[in-house]
Amino acid sequence: MINDLAYYFFFLFIAALFLINNSACKKKNFFSSGHLEFSQDTVFFDTIFTTIGSTTKRFKIYNKHNQKLKIDQIRLSGGSSSPFRINVDGVPGTLFSDIEIQKNDSLYVFVEVTLDPNNTTNPIVIEDQIIFTTNGKDQTVQLVVWGQDAYFHYSYISQGIFDLNEGTWPNDKPHVIYGAAFVDSAKTLNIPGGTQIYLHKNAVLYVYKGTLNIQGSLGNEVTLQGDRLESFYNDITGQYYGIYFNKAQSSSIDYCKIKNATAGIHLYDEDPNNSGYTLQLKNTTIENCEAYGVFIFSGAKVKAENCLIYKNGIHALVVVGGGDFNFNHCHLLGYGTGSNVGSAVGVSNHYYDPNTNTTTIASINEGIIKNSVLYGYHTHELAFDTIPNSAITLNFDIQHNLIKSDDVFSSPIFSNNIWNQSPLFNNINDNDFKFPANSPLNNTGTPTSVSTDIEGNPRANPPDIGAYEL
Questions:
Q1: Percentage of the chain surpassing pLDDT 70?
Q2: From CA 398, how far away is CA 386, in angstroms rounded?
Q3: Is domain 37-146 annotated with CATH 2.60.40.10?
Q4: Strand spans (E) along 156-221
Q5: What's the N-to-C CA distance of the chain in angstroms?
Q6: Fewer CB in 10 Å around end: N or C, the chain?
């Protein structure tokens, strides 16, 4: 009897073990090992909020597999402190576990946001994300809300969405660029004085074969900066890309302040139908860019007057692969603190393309720096790297400047320059680059057609070197 019971319980144990193992095997293969797909990877709330606002949007999660799919976890990254709220298939919360989607099925996620757009300590653009963990892989859907009343420019190139601009931007509210704002071929965009432009991470104001006219005035400047308004970001470089001119028609920038970009103004190539300068730049300040203040590449042409360009990560002005430049009464300063800081001004008429293993040599038909300060922390704030060639032109005129350089150039292209004397700036740490009467900048320039300084003060005869006149 005991033996019979023992065999009986042994049989039950083996049967149970078989069922458990078989069930585990089936369970392991019951769910798909694939991942999710989404109706969109970014949810934008582009409503212009003027009071405490709330709106709701939705997107779909897809299981496009032939087996049921289990989402291990869905979580709102910002948790309970996020201005966003989510609802997964009818259930609100910030964290969800073991959500199942039947084969070839989907479910909705609803997203809501509430914030006070008049709280100026908020960034212009507020972001969060929903993180989906499935079969060991994290996938995200970005959440983006405009945080103040503004004009919004949104381009999503991978989805064929382009924000195209022409005419005149109104200046009664800020403009926020997310992705890019484009000025397309043969179009003209005018930006009047007082316009405030905020650019999101990597965003760019892009001019392609068109014309951009920034028309600020003294005391009513146009400003470009990042869209993060917290004090922490006041001096963070690389918050957006900058202004990019690609084969642009004749454009102008007057009384503009550009700060915390990657490359404040980047110019590429010259439209062969454009007989004048690609850009005329006046009375403009470019500061604290991650790489360059002004970058001239592959033939673009720039004329600049009364400009203050300083504390940029590599160069204040750089010319690569040829192009023309005429800088008069400018502060072209170093004082950058990045690991790649170079000379304040770097000029090269060639560039190497690693993709084709070729070096291109081009002309510099007009290379003028006059009445300007080239100074900074380095012992050489002017660097030339040019390759002569019988097929190209190199034409320089560097005169009546104050230049800091280990090499004191004595060739005919350099004349009447002051070498390696301190300009005696008032306070470099406070970005005060004015100077006292005993500065070597005082009354040592040469008269030109620039009749006033960056602050509207009349130029003396002889004028001071740099953007300021005592």
A1: 90
A2: 15
A3: yes
A4: 167-168, 175-178, 180-183, 188-192, 196-199, 204-208, 211-215
A5: 117
A6: N
